[in-house]
Design a protein that fits this description.
Helix content is about 45%, strand content about 15%. By secondary structure, the chain is an alpha+beta fold.
């Protein structure tokens, strides 16, 4: 199994540097120094308010959200850190649509910046279904450092796996 599965698409020199940091047991400290601020978004209600505030700030005219929750069933291993779904239900003679965002519970204890990154990612799906240029432009509109946060989140997940494999966190 590849020890850098979250960094598979990155160039060999980047992967080599990450392996070096892991070998020197410095990756966790580097991330802790850079992302020391925790967040207070602990419950599903707080998460809904957090997501709604970001949505109101950047995507006022987009569809309303019906539900936002932490989901313990999302598998980080299967690359599902968050999901955005549209659910249609028949209500009387009408079809009602509801949008849901589910965030993996790993973000309950992750640094604040990583929670923001995944929320921005899922909110961008309200307007853009595909991961295309317009999608990433919207992400960087909501979080100008989006690409750096995404990379650092991949480092965080890599460190988390390495620490769990070594019996520590």
């Amino acid at each position: 199994m590849d020890d850098l599965k979250y960094l598979a698409g990155y160039p060999p020199h980047v992967q080599a540097r990450v392996r070096e940091l892991i070998g020197q047991d410095r990756l966790g400290a580097l991330l802790a120094d850079k992302y020391s601020q925790a967040h207070a978004v602990r419950s599903d209600g707080q998460l809904y308010e957090y997501v709604q505030a970001l949505k109101d700030r950047h995507l006022r005219k987009s569809v309303p959200l019906g539900k936002v929750v932490y989901d313990s069933k999302l598998q980080v291993m299967k690359h599902a850190l968050g999901t955005h779904t549209a659910i249609s239900r028949v209500h009387g003679g009408k079809l009602k649509a509801s949008r849901e965002i589910r965030i993996a519970t790993v973000f309950r204890d992750a640094p604040a910046e990583f929670l923001k990154m995944i929320v921005v990612h899922e909110l961008a799906h309200l307007k853009e279904a595909e991961h295309n240029k317009a999608f990433y432009q919207l992400c960087t509109h909501m979080a100008p450092d989006y690409h750096q946060l995404e990379f650092d989140l991949r480092l965080f997940l890599t460190h988390r796996d390495a620490a769990a494999g070594a019996g520590r966190q």
